[in-house]
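Researcher: I'd like a structural prediction for the single chain below. Treat it as a standalone chain; there are no partners to consider.
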Amino acid sequence: MKRLAPLAMASLLLAFFASAQAGADIRWGVTISGGTTPPPVRYEPPPPPRNGYVWVEGYWNWNGSAFVWVPGHWLLARAGYEYAQPHCPPGQRKKGNC
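Model: Treating it as a single chain, here is the predicted structure.
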């Protein structure tokens, strides 16, 4: 009986540590982004004007991992609003944000 006690204790400790290891789930994630700049602007010839619509030029959009081209499209004009084409805020192009 005295020999079984240390064996039983060792088995319990082994089971405890094995279950503690299985329950530990630690994950690390690191995102490093360099000065990735968008490709050159694509030229899209604007279509003929449409009454009641504004043409939105295409532009490069960052999707979190790469730049993707968003093609030009028609946007319904809203009364009392003036549309400005997408642009890069001052100083942001040098930082690689546009």
